[in-house]
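pasting for the record
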Amino acid sequence: MRSNRTIGLLTRMLLVVSLLFGVVTFAGTTAEAQYRHRGRVIVRPRVLVYPRTFYPRSFLYNRTYYAPPSTRVTEGQGYRDGLNDGRDDARDRDGYNPQRHNDYRNAQTSAYLDAYLRGYADGYRQRIG
């Protein structure tokens, strides 16, 4: 009776250990290193578990991904929002006050805010002048 219990326990322990070994072997761990080069964000995946027999060596190295900085997107969007709000205020003959708009108050970044102010001034000036 006792030996059947021991054999069952050992069988389950062997199954758990082999399952953990399989997960660790095939899952792999990667980390991505980021750095800036000439205003671009460069993302390089780094493989921490090696060797992987099912991936060719060229797959593991020399893979670089370029991600544009997000401030350019927010700058352009901020300028367009400010331009539209400035034109609307000038058309409605409202005073020059960019602070009353939700786009100004809910700005996420300083780049968006600066571009919004530039766009607001340009839009207000275009409509008045």
